[in-house]
């Protein structure tokens, strides 16, 4: 049955990758979405009295940090990061990272996301915008000011590697370790960053996965017939 087990491990990985690719395609137009991929690896198990068994595993998810398309929206509280880094937001489950920069002030004057999570500055404190401010000026580093008076700087943070990011939802990430401010960040005012999904590439990959899965299924059916034939021959 070793052949069937090895093939089933591959089929399981293909199903997981198919789900990720389908989710990427569904979020091709989601602001701040980061494309996700799956890393396949080999798992070798030592089986007593027989040769070792090699099976595939597909459990490590890889997030693409490639820059998405920057689009000018004209929104007073729309922001986009050019280059490295994420916005840091405060959620009930803890601080999270995101590239979705469509914000708005709440009733208390705190800058929040569309989900109501407060946006944090370079010191980890909420970004405050006076409710009576006619308009705000934003510097290239994310510093907010009203009538020449600085209010604070929108925080832009980074992690060491993409593997330090655990996806929560479509546009939020939980860092496994510590985060640190990006030196000399570039924040664009009245811009939003689109998804970095390459839709054509992902559709092509989805077709490849489906064909590979169908091939594996055909192999399993042929192997099942072989085993049935061997059992019938032994029982005669």
Care to describe what's here?
This protein is an alpha+beta fold. The protein contains two helices and 18 strands. The strands form six sheets. Strands 5, 6, 9, 13, 14, 15 and 16 form a seven-stranded antiparallel beta sheet that branches. It has a three-stranded antiparallel beta sheet with strand order 10-11-12, with no helix packed on it. The model has no long low-confidence stretch (mean pLDDT 87).
What are the defining features of this structure?
31% strand, 18 strands, alpha+beta, 2 domains, 236 residues
Whole-number tally of structural domains: 2
Radius of gyration: 24 Å
SS content category = alpha+beta
The amount of beta strand, in percent, is: 25-35%
Shape: elongated
List the helices and strands and how they pair.
Elements lengths: L1 H25 L9 E10 L7 E11 L6 E3 L6 E3 L4 E6 L2 E5 L5 E2 L5 E2 L5 E2 L17 E2 L4 E4 L2 E5 L2 E3 L6 E4 L3 E4 L4 E2 L5 E3 L1 E3 L5 H37 L1
Antiparallel strand pairs: 1-2, 3-18, 4-17, 5-6, 5-9, 5-13, 6-15, 7-8, 10-11, 11-12, 13-16, 14-15
In brief, what are we looking at here?
By secondary structure, the protein is an alpha+beta fold. 26% of the residues lie in helices and 31% in strands.
């Amino acid at each position: 049955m070793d052949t069937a087990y090895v093939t089933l491990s591959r089929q399981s990985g293909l199903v997981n990758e198919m789900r990720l690719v389908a989710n990427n395609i569904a979020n091709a137009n989601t602001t701040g979405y980061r494309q996700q991929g799956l890393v396949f690896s080999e798992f070798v198990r030592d089986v007593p009295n027989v040769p070792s068994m090699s099976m595939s595993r597909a459990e490590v998810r890889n997030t693409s940090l490639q820059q998405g398309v920057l689009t000018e929206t004209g929104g007073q509280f729309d922001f986009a990061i050019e280059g490295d880094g994420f916005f840091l937001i405060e959620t009930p489950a803890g601080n999270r990272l995101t590239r979705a920069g469509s914000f708005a002030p709440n009733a208390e004057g705190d800058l929040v996301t569309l989900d109501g999570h407060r946006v944090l500055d370079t010191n980890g404190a909420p970004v405050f915008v006076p409710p009576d401010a006619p308009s705000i000026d934003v510097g290239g580093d994310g510093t907010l000011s009203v009538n020449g008076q600085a209010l604070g700087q929108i925080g832009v943070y980074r992690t060491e590697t993409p593997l330090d990011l655990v996806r929560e939802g479509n546009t939020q990430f939980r860092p496994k370790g510590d985060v640190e401010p990006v030196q000399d960040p570039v924040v664009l005012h009245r811009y939003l960053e689109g998804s970095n999904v390459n839709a054509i590439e992902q559709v092509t990959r989805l077709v490849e996965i489906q064909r590979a899965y169908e091939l594996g299924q055909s192999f399993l059916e042929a192997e099942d017939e072989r085993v049935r034939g061997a059992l019938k021959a032994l029982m005669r």
